[in-house]
Amino acid sequence: MQVTVSAVAAWMTSFADVVHANAAYLTELDSAIGDADHGANLDRGMKAVVALDASTFDSASAYLKKAGMTLVSTVGGASGPLYGTLFMRIGAALPADGEVTPAILGDALQAGLDGIVARGKALVGDKTMVDALTPAIDAYRGAESQGVPAALAAAAKGAADGRDATIPLVARKGRASYLGERSAGHQDPGATSVTMLMESAAAMHVG
Amino acid sequence: MIGIVVVSHSRALAKAAVALALDMVPGTRPPVAVAAGLDETTLGTDASAIAEAITEVDSPEGVLIFLDLGSAILSAEMALEFIDPEVAARVRISPAPLVEGLVAAVVTAAGGAGVQVVEATALAGLRAKEEHLGLPAPVAVVAEAAVEGPEFRLELVSPAPIGLHLRPVSLIAGALGAFDADVMIGTDDHEPVHADSMIELQTLGAGPGVALHVTATGPDAQAAIAALQELAARNFGEQ
Question: Could you tell me if A69 lies within 8 Å of chain B, comparing CB atoms?
Fold first, then answer.
């Protein structure tokens, strides 16, 4: 199948819309255990991504790299370099002609996760976006043989399960880690937003 | 002279910290660039802006980055991936406290010290505060240089009216940074400390009129002693 610039741009627009609609919710989650800026920061960054002129990019790969750079310069908080790395690594892993198999797309998502882990040094169980993205990619791999739409749907479900599983965790990374035991009982904002990203991808029925 | 970059979520905080630090060096100053905030008032860090700041103050002698917290660290690390790998190889990100580390670094760098000495001095930036508040002093992080040759001695008197306060201390440490010499200053009440470290000098707590025992070894020992004599003749810049 073909991953086109317009398909990826539509994914970004859909994610931006969800983030905008849930900005107050994300910030509320962040105010419980962080510095109360996740919703506003990501909303600002995704607005800048959506403002990119998709017609000026000749590949989905180039578009995603630029989207990542845009987040790096506009988000401000840790989600800037983290989401920025995610999109840049996915972009770098996509072939220039956009022709992908379910396995190649899975490899690209995995490259994005690897980039986030290398950047933020968080592991599964630290109460971060890694806790949603890791089971999402595992689920994608499990459903890969059924095609991209089914694999993305499985990824969205995996992310949501991972997100819900962050509630009892004690944070070991980021601003929330200053709270120690008091961070338990709250859902992680980063795991929540990255689940929105995977749900946006699944909702597009790419392919 | 090395270059210095200050990374903070707040542009106001970074600019004020730089102003505080530069106030300590009246003469030649190391190049300092700020990459802080998304604009004048919006809090945040930006890896692209940090990359530009590094390029702006880049020096063959190295660049040292000071930062506040959280995304500042991730963004600074990411910035190193955006710049020329040759430049990135001479950039170091300091874990030192922002204000104390920056003040120590600017003074030490102005004295011509290399990036490793500046980094070590900055890392010891909390020592004066810790010692004053009675916390156990950590192991000295300024490396002992191996020295050869004769030892030079000098007896000085801590300047009136305020003793070895910030200004005279910065002059001493700044002047000695240019010499290849191991200069130690002690008092009757305090064991000798490295005289090229303003942080260590402050721990002497030498009030006006206190006797300072100076020893110097190394290739430039005599020149370093002469420089100190000249500073003392000017009462360490105090009126």
Answer: yes
CATH 3.40.50.510 for domain B3-123: yes
Q: What are the chain B neighbours of A82 within 8 Å (beta carbons)?
A: 74
| Per-residue pLDDT, A146 | 96
pLDDT tens for chain B, 239 residues: list them.
999 999 999 999 999 999 999 998 988 899 999 999 999 999 999 999 999 999 999 999 999 999 998 899 999 999 999 999 999 999 999 999 999 999 999 999 998 888 888 988 898 888 788 777 877 654 433 334 444 567 888 888 888 878 888 878 888 888 888 788 899 999 998 999 999 888 889 889 888 888 899 999 988 888 888 888 888 887 887 76
pLDDT in tens, A31-75: 999 888 999 999 999 999 999 999 999 999 999 999 999 999 999
| Chain A interface disruption, residue of B71, B73, B82, most A CBs within 10 A | B71
Question: Is A80's CB within 8 Å of B77's CB?
Answer: no
In this chain, the answer to whether the domains covering B3-123 and B152-237 adopt an identical fold is no
Measured between beta carbons, the chain A residues lying within 8 angstroms of B71 are 76-81
Check A76 against B48: CB less than 8 A apart: no
CATH of B152-237, one of 3.40.50.2300, 3.30.1340.10, 3.40.50.2020, 3.10.180.10: 3.30.1340.10
Q: What residue ranges do the domains of chain B occupy?
A: 3-123, 152-237
Instruction: Say which of A76, A80, A175 has its CB closest to residue B42.
Output: A76
What is the set of domains in chain A, with CATH numbers? 5-203 (1.25.40.340)
* SS3 letters across chain A: CECCHHHHHHHHHHHHHHHHHCHHHHHHHHHHHCCCCHHHHHHHHHHHHHCCCHHHCCCHHHHHHHHHHHHHHHCCCCHHHHHHHHHHHHHHHCCCCCECCHHHHHHHHHHHHHHHHHHHCCCCCCCCCHHHHHHHHHHHHHHHHHCHHHHHHHHHHHHHHHHHHCCCCCCCCCHHHHHHHHHCCCCCHHHHHHHHHHHHHHHCCCC
Which residue among B9, B46, B70 sits closest to A73, beta carbon to beta carbon?
A: B46
Catalytic residue numbers of B, as ranges: 9
The answer to whether A171 faces chain B, any CB pair under 8 Å, is: no
Q: Is B81 on the interface with A (CB under 8 A)?
A: no
Q: Is some CB atom of chain A closer than 8 A to the CB atom of B75? A: yes
Q: What is the ipTM of this complex?
A: 0.85
